[in-house]
């Protein structure tokens, strides 16, 4: 898909960061494509072409700019409608689905035909599925070259190239030089990096981003031993290919990026970690568009003004947040955190962090919770049964949290598990699926937060009211929760 210059001219002249990663500028005179924020002299309008994706610009024959580094642009924002399928496909590509079985396997995971998937990519990104995947692979490799001191062979396989020879050939073709030549003069995020030590990367986002609100939300729900939240950082333990490791995200004042530190030697899983962190902290969102849309509603206008840049925190592990949601039924957030921490302490794997002594456990996997006894932890018998049914559904492949199911199908399927009703299912969808329109309309706090002082809302009334908040109802949820909690402390 190609845009017309008139649609974007004012933002281009202003180097507007809100459009970073949403449009790419192909410059006819140089054969290079750039981000809107590129610091070089702004080319004349008649000398450019605009593209909806970096892959489309590359397919048109442009090479990536070495100054503005298109590989560092914030990711493609989540979409709705038919294009939401493309968002889900991009998540699955990052998880390796395309590598395992090609376009047919990716389409099958999304429950659509390969031809339809190809048509959607052409419609919304302007290129084929494989072209997008190849550009993502190239961009990730370039990012690792610029920001780390990893050996070139490690970068090759971390980015998903099948061989060093192919890796070198692609870089020579696109950049006109070997990968090692591109590293000269770069500024790594950390000098102390190797295959076996921390890897530190910058992840960019579009302003505004109320990351303090997100950290406040995560801090209140953090599982002791598994997660640790400070005033400006979030860290947690994770499993990568069966190996326990950790990552830390640190926000920096006065910048439009965060620092991601990943520990361990799981180089081949690095791209997946980066993609999941992007989703977890909603770094691809276009908050300015969301805020404008929601503030048009009189009920939300004051909340948007008080808390601009609210994002939706997507859980690292969908199964983990589902277990928490089940445990949290009809108990306070603090009470749920206590019960979940007991579960993790009793059945999670031991972990010893080199950098953060607060990280001591790994959340138990479905295979463990499906068979161990959960009695004696303070969890009711009914909820224990629901957790173990949930674990078995995941083990058997009947329930997935990877984006292969759309929200309606996911909610319908997870409600087949005894003990999981509409509120629990919708809450899990909000935290696990990266759906900008997910909406747990029966949530008690939400019903209070959305109501006027003299009004009592029912779930049906809230659902009808929220029609005007589409397609950003998930953001309205986070906004209302934040605004209500803030109002209770005044």
Question: What is this entry, summarized?
Answer:
The chain is an alpha+beta fold.
Average pLDDT works out at: 91
> In angstroms, what separates the terminal alpha carbons?
49 Å
| Helical stretch tally | 22
SS-based class: alpha+beta
Give an account of the 3D structure.
- The protein has 490 residues and is α+β, with helices and mostly antiparallel strands.
- Among the domains are: 2-70, 3-Layer(aba) Sandwich (DNA Methylphosphotriester Repair Domain), CATH 3.40.10.10; 82-147 and 150-182, Homeodomain-like (Arc Repressor Mutant, subunit A), CATH 1.10.10.
- The protein is built from 22 helices and 12 strands.
- The strands form 3 sheets. The protein has a 5-stranded mixed sheet with strand order 1-4-2-3-5.
- Helix 4 (97-109) packs across helix 5.
- Mean pLDDT is 91; it is low at 191-196.
Walk me through the topology:
Blueprint: E1 2-3, H1 9-13, E2 24-27, E3 32-34, E4 48-51, H2 54-59, E5 63-64, H3 82-94, H4 97-109, H5 114-124, H6 129-147, H7 152-158, H8 164-175, H9 179-182, E6 199-204, H10 211-221, E7 227-229, E8 233-240, E9 243-251, E10 257-263, H11 270-280, H12 287-295, H13 298-306, H14 318-327, H15 333-347, E11 349-350, E12 361-362, H16 366-369, H17 381-395, H18 407-414, H19 422-432, H20 444-450, H21 459-465, H22 473-489
Parallel strand pairs: 3-5
Antiparallel strand pairs: 1-4, 2-3, 2-4, 6-10, 7-8, 8-9, 9-10, 11-12
Helix pairs in contact: 3-4, 3-5, 4-5, 6-7, 13-22, 14-15, 14-17, 14-19, 18-19, 20-22
């Amino acid at each position: 898909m190609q845009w017309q210059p008139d649609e974007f001219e004012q933002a281009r002249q202003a180097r507007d960061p809100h459009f970073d990663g949403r449009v790419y500028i192909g410059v006819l005179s140089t054969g290079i494509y750039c981000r809107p924020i590129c610091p070089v002299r702004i080319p004349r309008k008649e000398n450019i072409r605009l593209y909806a994706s970096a892959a489309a610009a590359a397919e048109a024959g442009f090479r990536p700019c070495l100054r503005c580094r298109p590989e560092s642009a914030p990711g493609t924002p989540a979409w709705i409608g038919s294009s939401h399928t493309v968002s889900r496909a991009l998540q699955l590509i990052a998880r390796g689905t395309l590598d395992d079985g090609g376009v047919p396997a990716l389409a099958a995971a999304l429950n659509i035909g390969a031809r339809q998937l190809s048509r959607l990519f052409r419609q919304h990104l302007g290129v084929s599925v494989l072209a997008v995947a190849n550009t993502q692979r190239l961009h990730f490799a370039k990012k690792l070259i610029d920001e780390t001191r990893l050996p070139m062979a490690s970068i090759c396989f971390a980015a998903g190239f099948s061989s060093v020879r192919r890796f070198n050939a692609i870089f020579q073709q696109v950049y006109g030089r070997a990968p090692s030549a591109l590293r000269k003069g770069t500024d790594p995020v950390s000098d102390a990096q190797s295959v076996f030590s921390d890897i530190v990367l910058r992840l960019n986002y579009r302003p505004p981003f109320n990351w303090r609100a997100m950290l406040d939300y995560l801090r209140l729900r953090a599982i002791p031993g598994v997660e640790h939240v400070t005033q400006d950082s979030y860290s947690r333990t994770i499993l990568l290919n069966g190996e326990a490791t950790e990552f830390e995200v640190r926000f920096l004042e006065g910048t439009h990026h965060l620092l991601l530190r990943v520990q361990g030697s799981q180089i081949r899983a690095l791209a997946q970690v980066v993609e999941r962190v992007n989703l977890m902290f909603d770094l691809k969102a276009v908050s300015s568009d969301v805020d404008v849309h929601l503030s048009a509603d009189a009920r939300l206008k004051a909340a948007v003004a008080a808390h601009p840049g609210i994002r939706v925190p997507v859980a690292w592990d969908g199964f983990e947040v589902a277990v928490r949601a089940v445990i949290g039924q009809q108990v306070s957030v603090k009470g749920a955190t206590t019960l979940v921490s007991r579960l993790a302490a009793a059945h999670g794997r031991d972990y010893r962090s080199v950098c953060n002594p607060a990280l001591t456990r790994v959340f138990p996997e479905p295979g463990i919770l499906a068979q161990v006894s959960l009695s004696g932890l303070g969890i009711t018998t009914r909820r224990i049964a629901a957790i173990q049914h949930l674990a078995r559904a995941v083990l058997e492949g009947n329930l997935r949290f990877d984006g292969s199911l759309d929200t309606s199908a996911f909610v319908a399927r997870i409600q087949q598990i005894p003990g999981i009703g509409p509120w629990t299912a919708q809450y899990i969808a909000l935290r696990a699926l990266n759906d900008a329109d997910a909406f747990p309309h029966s949530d008690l706090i939400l019903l209070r937060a959305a109501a006027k002082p003299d009004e009592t809302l029912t779930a049906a009334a809230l659902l009808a009211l929220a029609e005007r908040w589409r397609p950003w109802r998930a953001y309205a949820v986070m906004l209302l929760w934040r605004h209500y909690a803030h109002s209770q402390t005044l």
